[in-house]
Fold Hydroxyacyl-CoA dehydrogenase.
Amino acid sequence: MTAYKAYDAVRRIAVLGCGTIGASWAAYFLARGYDVAAWDPAEGWKQRLQAFVDNAMPQLQAVGTATGAPGRLEMLDTPEAAVTGADFVQENATERAPIKIELYRRIDAALAPDAILATSTSGLILSELVEGIASAPRFVVGHPFNPPHLIPLVEVVSSKVTDAAAAEWAYGFYAHVGKHPIVVKKEVKGHLANRLQAALWREAFNAVVDDLASVEDINAAIAQGPGLRYALMGPHMIFNLTGGKGGIRAALEQFGPPMASWWETMQRTPAFDDELKSRLIAGIEAEMGDRTIEDLENERDTRLVLLLRMLKETEGER
Amino acid sequence: MTAYKAYDAVRRIAVLGCGTIGASWAAYFLARGYDVAAWDPAEGWKQRLQAFVDNAMPQLQAVGTATGAPGRLEMLDTPEAAVTGADFVQENATERAPIKIELYRRIDAALAPDAILATSTSGLILSELVEGIASAPRFVVGHPFNPPHLIPLVEVVSSKVTDAAAAEWAYGFYAHVGKHPIVVKKEVKGHLANRLQAALWREAFNAVVDDLASVEDINAAIAQGPGLRYALMGPHMIFNLTGGKGGIRAALEQFGPPMASWWETMQRTPAFDDELKSRLIAGIEAEMGDRTIEDLENERDTRLVLLLRMLKETEGER
């Protein structure tokens, strides 16, 4: 880690791409006191970003993320200008390889020689995006979860050419600013957490295909049940507790064989055909009732803030 | 629903099998003011049950489950005695078919003609357990989640011979006592919620096999990320919100194809061999540090109580 900047010396963070994910990152870094240099190619992005930040700031105060005075938000007209002088870049361009490749080419020369860039890509393989980019050894995946200003997880993944020290720096920096980074050791589709989610989604979609339960009941099968535990501990730790006093060893003995027999009946992959789509849409609309997407987002974020506060307040009891 | 007792007339509930699940059910029903007639075949069960109930009661008060004065706990020496005079039976015998079959044969004649029995079985197929049982039309699956006195979900499943009105009665009764029942329309291994969990576990075990991340990081990949959302809404509603303002339709269009491409790389089922077992055990022991299983259970339950309270208190904002 010798070549890179001390965390306390980081002042300015560039946020490239200010859609839902980028705007949320911008709010987070501002709340932590960093100056943010933002850029986005879309019409009207400056107003939307400002509105997002204004809405997120009280949440970040409530959840205890905000530390002292917020940083200064600067909105720039080119990505080159945004990254100039930046110590760290969080890139959130549209999730399409050609768009990211073009952006990397544009900013390559403007990046400071010790600046680290992290891409929020949820599905692309970084090694496939950085050919011919001089700064590529300082590029990593830093994949957050929606909404990034509230959800702590960041997956750090190296490309084939990432400098190990740069990846270590990024991991440490996310921890330094209060996120919960993890290291995904290999480049695979969906990194780690999205693969775990996609596995659950596969069976949730299969349950709709098979008409095993209503869409609303499938939602409740998680949110009123195991989902409550997933907010408190991960799958392997939950498995550990299903073993009673015998812990993980007893769980493996007792639940390994039945689970393997369930898996035998879970080999199908659903097709997103019209039948599945229309059942899903009808089920979701029935469950939403007169609530809008915005209502649901507000409900989620209000509760997330309270959940995160509770988890922080009970941390001492661990 | 004509033939069965009015919910307000239910007074006495038999709890058969008082291990972790049964004891938790007993505490729940007592807190709701029902008299509980308990039975278990194990040595020393009466002390353990009393201790469990004493420990759970303050949690049930904190979470708002307890309503007025608790019911009376009676501990009986035979299952026949326990079910005699019971309006409802929650059966939690050891998860092995011959044991449940024998128990059903023993209690069949002692059950009141309008009593409903629900089995907590997590994996067995009820239709395969009730051959020759006269009361079988009044038997359903009522599968809870650990710990049942805190987690709201109950999966209601009918066997091939279950009277539709009996299943409806059981569903309504769980709702009446404050649980969140769902209807699983077909008898499949693991019902619904355990299949969703097992799907996530499959990829979580594969991640250990592939050394994609440490066991602790795999846990964090859920608990610090999507797990926080699973406590607030189910998988299809989360999918709906990944579509931004375009909702479920936009999500299907935008994330359907990439997810299908991830699934292509998620076709393997892990084997519980010595390598996987020893990595899991080492990873869990490292993450536990000096915490015991009991410490983890207490941490989970303390936080579950606070989480459930928060969800209840923000219900009005839905």
Remarks:
- The longest strand of chain B covers residues 139-144.
- Chain B has two domains: 7-184, 193-232+271-317.
